[in-house]
Amino acid sequence: QVQxxxxxxxxxxxxxxxxxxxxxxxxxxxxxxxxxxRQAPGKQRELVAGITSGSNTNYAxxxxxxxxxxxxxxxxxxxxxxxxxxxxxxxxxxxxxxVSVESGYVMNYWGQGTQVTVSS
Length: 120
Description:
mainly beta; elongated; 7-stranded mixed beta sheet
């Protein structure tokens, strides 16, 4: 079993910054891709940013230039630094990890979500 625990969400004024963290633990043989998704009320969950095991990154156009995803492989942790936040960034942010578990399978895991609220 693998657990993803997110932290770092909260309330911030427009123009401010937040740093989200997500730590993976459990029966992990290796972590492939990791990423952050978000879901605003009444909207579908969408990819915010992703990072591969080789640290290749991709970003949604809506956050490109304002956000940076990074990972610490030694800590099985992924980070999302968000700057110049806008009210439209308000959403629940979910961590995702594609994990090779010790049984040999590759599994997809989600965190419980952390609320980010940006006030205007």
